[in-house]
Amino acid sequence: WEAERVERERAVAPAPPRASESQRALFRDWSAILGSDPTSQEARALVARWRALLEAETGGDEEIKRDMLEAFSRRRQWPDGMKRYVASLYEVDVDTWQRVTDFIERAAAHPS
Question: What CA–CA distance (Å, rounded) separates 93 from 70?
Answer without folding.
Answer: 22
